[in-house]
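Q: I have 341 residues here and want to know how they pack in 3D. Can you give me a structure?
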Amino acid sequence: MSASPPSYGSDQSGLVCGYLFGRTPDGKGVPLDTDAARDWLKVREQHPEQFVWLHYNLANTASEKWLHEHTALPEEFYESLHEGPRSTRIELVDNMLIAVVNDVLHDFSFDASDISTLWLSVDSQIVISARRKPLKAIDGLRNAVRNGEPMRSSVALLIHLLRDQADALIKIVRGAISTVDGIEDNLLAGKLTTQRAGLGSLRRVLVRLQRLLAPEPAALFRLLQRPPAWVAEIDAQELSQSTEEFSMVLADMASLQERIKLIQEEIAALTAEANNHSLFVLTVVTVLALPINIIAGLFGMNVGGIPLADAPHGFWVVVAIVASFTVIAGLVAFRRQRGQR
């Protein structure tokens, strides 16, 4: 018996899910399989009142081949699939919206590697989305459609996705704020138990999230100023609002980064102060031990003429001399330390 090829959570064509919508206010998505989607694509011109959403898993190598054979996506879409990490952008290409959206994985654990990319192509009748790893925002959109949430247009799917992504980002920011609050409370209570490396890692992840998730302003500005003719005015307005909401979340993330930076500087200052205090104590101990070491070295020489060698109270005289020098050295050291404060 021959083993079946791996599906990677999709069917043989790479389709994870597909839905057919009607352009009505209460139009709910009807599930589509690969065969039904292929048949609809052949007669799409006969149903201008309908649009479909097809979601693919690029980990299945059959996905890209199927899209080449049955859709007319622009080459820019396929080129973007093989680009390196870039910030979120939405561009107009051949009267289609090509979107590259970065999102976090389901098991996001504040690690820079837990960020992946979702690619979308949107026109008046077809929404194609593709990803290599399961992402929070797209699966949130999938669950909403599965639960019967209506979508009035193809652009409404994109808007819903951006808002789901903003919601996921808000949860991440809240989790980071909770972590930073705990660190700050411990710092104010004088409990310097947090390592700067942990804060540094959190800050690097937030910087990467902000860099990848922030929409490219130039392309987005051009799109919002001159949307394609098939985009309804209400969709253009809501797309602008969703990007503004997203920008506000990114602004909160930037302020959180500055807060983490200040806490890092405070921890560094406290650590430096603790190190200086330890170094001062070590220096004082060394200075206090210096007189007795010098005198012991001198009196330990086996040569003639050592003073007080025959005196009955010579030992106590030497002890008094050593104690006097030690007290004088200690007073000088502590007075200088008090003056520096």
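Q: Anything worth noting?
A: The chain has nine helices and seven strands. The beta strands are 15-22, 30-31, 50-57, 89-93, 96-104, 115-122, 126-131.
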